[in-house]
UniProtKB/TrEMBL annotation:
Domain Photolyase/cryptochrome alpha/beta, chain residue ranges per copy: 4-134
Cofactor binding remark: Binds 1 FAD per subunit.
Residues that bind FAD: Y217, F259, E262, L263, I264, W265, R266, E267, F268, F269
Annotated protein name in UniProt: Deoxyribodipyrimidine photo-lyase
Keyword Flavoprotein applies: yes
Organism from which the protein derives: Flagellimonas taeanensis
Sites annotated Electron transfer via tryptophanyl radical: W293, W346, W369
InterPro entries named in the record: Crypto/Photolyase_FAD-like_sf, Crypto/Photolyase_N_sf, Cryptochr/Photolyase_FAD-bd, Cryptochrome/DNA_photolyase_1, DNA_photolyase_1_CS_C, DNA_photolyase_N, Rossmann-like_a/b/a_fold
Amino acid sequence: MSDRISIFWFRRDLRLDDNVGLYQALQSDFPVLPIFIFDKEILSSLPNKDPRVSFIHLQLQKLRNQLQDNHQSGIALYHGEPLSIFKKLMDQYEVQCVYTNHDYEPYALERDTKVKAHLKENGVGFQTFKDQVIFEKNDVVKDDGDPYVVYTPYMKRWKETFNPSIHLVDYDTHSLMGKNLYKASSFANLSLKDIGFEPADIKVADYKVSPDLIQDYKQTRDYPGIHQGTSRLGPHLRFGTVSIRKMIQKAIAEKDSTFQNELIWREFFMQILWHFPKTVNHAFKPKYDRIKWRNNEAEFERWKAGNTGYALVDAGMRELNATGYMHNRVRMLVASFLCKHLLIDWRWGESYFAEKLLDYELASNVGNWQWAAGSGVDAAPYFRIFNPMTQAEKFDKQLKYIHKWVPEFQELTYPTPMVDHKMARERCLKVYKEAVG
């Protein structure tokens, strides 16, 4: 007789504590086998030293060790196509139900629909839960049921709807683990090499969400030269190594609306993606798809390498290439420069950020790139064109950030600006006006 079990499927929730789906699984009537699937569909497009894959693998090994040491349990790791993995698991065990947390991206929704349909055909339940956001889908909408497409009214309604006693429940998984986890002498494991990867040179930095950082956040977050002026929380929210509920709780405890508002921006873009999945590849405002992009590949390469001749733009791109991170203020500038100074399609930039950013998240990345291009919800008007020189003067006056990443910027070897700001601005306005009127 094969063992009767429930399965908890880890995905964007790589933690044991305050994990809604894991908590619900542990309340079931059967021992819980935790699993993680390295999805070939996702991995196939990544370089073999991708730091995000290294980070996921490292986090999973930490969780496996914790479960082994404390509960004689573990996490079974698999590599392949999720539906095929579940078919094999159903041959190996009497699976009663699969538990997991919601994922909102188009590929994930398609994947989950296939898995759920197969499980249902075989009498197996598939239960998913809200875990990576406070509010999702239709949780925060206008009075008529339409989604918000402007951030400020969404944020205000978010705060009106929010109730700490309801939305900040701590899902105490640890009290349930001892008796409800599946126990075995060993669990399927995989090395990075087994899935076709090597350890990455770039590491994901620990996050820092101290009371001081939160209290100073409004004053420090716009200045890339300030060391630890931001939290580095992005990758940890992206992969769920930290609970969003715990982060909102910290923001509330310090009475800081700026830090909390940044977390709400993330949920704003997630609900936009859920309501308008076409925005992954198409402008939210369709007339912006009529823009006649120049799409000069040589200029795109100079932008990617940080050799544009504009020091703050170059500093941002070099930081991204070296660390997988870029300061948020600088992200806005480099995106605007690509779309408006060079007239290169925002989708090219979005794709490059997807390749490089440790905190890459489809909803926020698409939302922010469309904001920069003027084509998205709540977007900057197309005639708002950042001047890279005045941005540097305003946000890196002491040149700390520029000196760090572009040490040669005052030398003769540093390139002259690849495009004149005044000419580029006028060209951009002409091309945009022709497209959108």
